[in-house]
Design brief:
The chain is mainly alpha-helical. 61% of the residues lie in helices and 3% in strands. It contains 22 helices and 6 strands. The strands form 3 sheets. The chain has a two-stranded antiparallel sheet. A hairpin with a 5-residue loop joins strand 1 and strand 2 (98-100). The longest helix has 22 residues, at 331-352. The chain starts with 6 loop residues before the first helix and ends in a 15-residue tail after the last helix.
């Protein structure tokens, strides 16, 4: 069935998942998902939500948009991308229990919580969906689950069976672990300033503290009764009043709004809006900066993907994942990129893990990198160089041996980067001015970043665009 052939389903989804007030139950959704032991194990080991929370949320929203609002071909591509990602997420948690993102029952729980959160949004706002509307929504969800390869037998049979399923999962399977506590009480307190809120930078520490307290109170108040019974979490009157006021108030406020204000724009619309915005007026002059400071920034902003202050193989895999997310590579080309980043990690560990704990911290990285660069002119070519060459070849989608401007934009772009910034970055890396970036120019830019002692060469500005 094509998207055009099911307008009623699209209308139902648009008035639920696409409505902006779905954000009120987003944290509740994440708590329910992460409380599943298998999800918590994968999040703890592989997710970038601690170091890059806004990027992680952006990816999740983009994935949901492709699954539920795009046409059949885009959904097919998104399903394939998720399958490639999930096959790499497996291991054992801190208690020794194995987990895998390919487990059908775990995937079913993640999907059902999304449907349940949509219905909860309406219930909390005082306008529960009628049975026919719930059935319509659940029919669409089961179609997406089928596309994702989730067996029908692990899902609730119908919309009326979902509440009992959720109740049983909360009481028998979910756990209130470290990841749940972090999401509820710590994540926003240390979250970096979203780029689009740049003017609020001076007030951000105080603002995020207020937001963290309010969001934790709202989320706990909105969790299902079985959650409070299982884990003994209180539901203070103040939190209940906050929930009642926000959900009903926002519903009333949005009822009369036009669609472009009431509903989120999809990715293509956002890209067009970004391109229409004036280019940011950022001075391009650079001040002198020490190489150790630049290396430390690289460790914290790029290498430490999982945000725990240490780098290991999971961080390099997360870097490869985020690149593959942008490029939408076929599985065989993904494997080449992951292998190159794994070899880079082996070099980092061999030369930097001074205390033998299986990971590299920031001090170890800066000290060993500085010593290696000063001692050996070929140091980068044995680790970073091959990884960057693999990255270049992955981005060179037409196999021309050069990156054109469009390929560069896909690699370094995103919803937070203005096209004018990308054009400027492309011109700086295009040293010979021929309108394309060669593999040598690309690798030279990264080499400059690590070796230059001052910020006067093109490569030293990479963190500002990547």
């Amino acid at each position: 069935m094509t998207r055009d052939a099911r307008p009623a389903l699209d209308l139902a989804l648009r008035r639920t998942l696409g409505e902006r007030r779905i954000g009120l139950v987003a944290w509740r959704l994440l708590v329910l998902q992460i409380a599943h032991p298998a999800v918590a194990g994968g999040m703890s080991r592989y997710s970038t939500y601690r170091a890059h929370p806004w990027r992680r949320i952006e990816h999740t929203m983009e994935s949901g948009s492709r699954l539920f609002f795009a046409g059949p071909e885009e959904r097919r591509l998104e399903v394939a991308r998720l399958q490639r990602t999930h096959r790499r997420i497996q291991g054992t948690d801190d208690t020794g229990r194995p987990y895998t993102a390919e487990d059908p029952e775990t995937r079913a729980w993640v999907m059902v919580t999304l449907y349940e959160s949509m219905t909860a949004m309406h219930e909390l706002s005082g306008t529960p969906l009628p049975p026919a509307a719930r059935k319509l929504l659940y029919t669409q969800f089961k179609e997406v689950c089928a596309d994702l390869g989730i067996p029908e037998e692990v899902l609730p049979a119908g919309a009326d069976d979902v509440p009992a399923y959720v109740d049983r999962m909360v009481r028998e399977v979910l756990e209130y672990g470290e990841e749940v506590h972090y999401l509820l009480h710590e994540m926003l307190r240390e979250a970096p300033l979203p780029r689009r809120l740049g003017p609020l930078a001076p007030a951000w520490p105080a603002l995020r503290s207020v937001m963290a307290r309010g969001l934790a109170a709202l989320t706990v108040a909105d969790l299902p009764p079985a959650w409070h019974e299982r884990f003994g979490t209180p539901r203070p009157r103040g939190a209940a009043a906050l929930s009642w006021t926000l959900h009903r108030g926002l519903r009333l406020a949005m009822t009369g709004l036009p669609d472009h204000l009431r509903y989120r724009r999809h990715s293509a619309d956002r890209d067009r809006a970004l391109a229409a915005r004036p280019a940011p007026k950022v001075p391009r002059a650079r001040t002198a900066s020490s190489r150790p400071a630049r290396l430390e920034a690289f460790f914290r902003q790029v290498l430490d993907q999982t945000g725990d202050g240490r780098v290991d193989t999971a961080d390099l895999q997360a870097m490869a994942h985020n690149i593959c997310w942008r490029l939408e590579l076929p599985v065989e080309r993904e494997d080449v990129l992951y292998a190159a980043f794994e070899e880079w990690w082996k070099q980092l560990r061999a030369g930097m893990d001074g205390d033998g704990d299986g990971a590299v911290d920031c001090a170890e990285f800066v000290t060993a990198m500085t010593a290696g660069l000063d001692r050996d002119p070929g140091y980068l070519e044995r680790g970073l160089g091959p990884a960057m060459r693999a990255l270049f070849r992955a981005a060179d989608t037409d196999g021309s041996g050069h990156l054109c401007a469009d390929e560069y934009r896909v690699l370094f772009g995103g919803s937070r980067v203005h096209p004018a910034e990308l054009n400027d970055g492309f011109r700086e890396l295009d040293v010979d001015g021929d309108g394309r970036i060669s593999e040598d120019e690309f690798v030279a830019a990264f080499t400059d970043f690590f070796t230059a002692r001052t910020d006067t060469t093109a490569g030293t500005a990479l963190l500002g665009r990547a």
